[in-house]
Amino acid sequence: MSAVRKLHVIDPEDRARADLYDFLGLLLVRPADAALLRQVSALQSDDAPLGQALGMLARLAGITSAGAAEREYNQLFIGLGRGELLPYASYYLTGFLNEKPLARLRRDMAKAGIARSDGRKEPEDNIASLMEMMGGMITGRYGAVLPLAAQRRFFDAHIGPWAVHFFTDLEATGNSPFYAAVGSVGRQFMEIEAEAFRMLADT
Questions:
Q1: pTM score, two decimals?
Q2: CA distance 90 to 94
Q3: Which of the four CATH numbers 1.10.150.130, 3.40.50.880, 3.90.1570.10, 1.10.3480.10 does domain 12-202 have?
């Protein structure tokens, strides 16, 4: 997604959230190349469930070649005609592509000043773009840092209703160990975000 770049002072916890959203978007927008795999293999982990999932992803990145990552990615998301998974909000929420969830997203993107990036051909409601959008909203990449209440509204409208389901499906893929580990990280992060936003709504 294209952006108007400004400098903002971001809380370290919010910066970490944005980094993880951007990280997931980067992993899902195209096959991981050798440089990205090296970066992922150097990730630090801790004993929390999300930290353990990141540790597993790092270990798998260390033993996965760029060619293997590309084969996994193509099998999952491209395939012959279509891949095993269709990572779009419209598909997960309606069973079809280019439906009302995409129209609602485009409306909210316009309100937030987010434009589709040149060269992107996929519908904007794909999971990689939505992860990138959330990261950008947290850091002000699109012109202003969105307050938590506005982040929650976007998450609840466009990510919360389906992202855990998608990442659970990705985690369950039997022949794609690297991307299954990406699914585990994504699922746990989405669950953490959903719970945090629920708590925010209750205050």
A1: 0.93
A2: 6
A3: 1.10.3480.10
pLDDT in tens, 34-54: 999 999 999 988 999 999 999
For the chain, how far is it from start to end, CA to CA, in angstroms? 32
| 110-121 residue pLDDT tens | 988 898 877 778
Burial zone of 102 (CB within 10 Å; 0-12 exposed, 13-18 middle, 19+ buried):
buried
Condensed to tens digits (0 to 9), the pLDDT of residues 70-91 reads 999 999 999 767 899 999 999 9
Angle, in degrees to the nearest 10, between helices 148-158 and 127-139: 170
- Beta carbons within 10 angstroms of residue 55's beta carbon: 17
What is the residue type of 190?
Answer: M
Are the C-beta atoms of 132 and 22 separated by less than 8 Å? Answer: yes
- Each residue's pLDDT tens digit, 161-201: 999 999 999 999 989 999 999 999 999 999 999 999 999 88
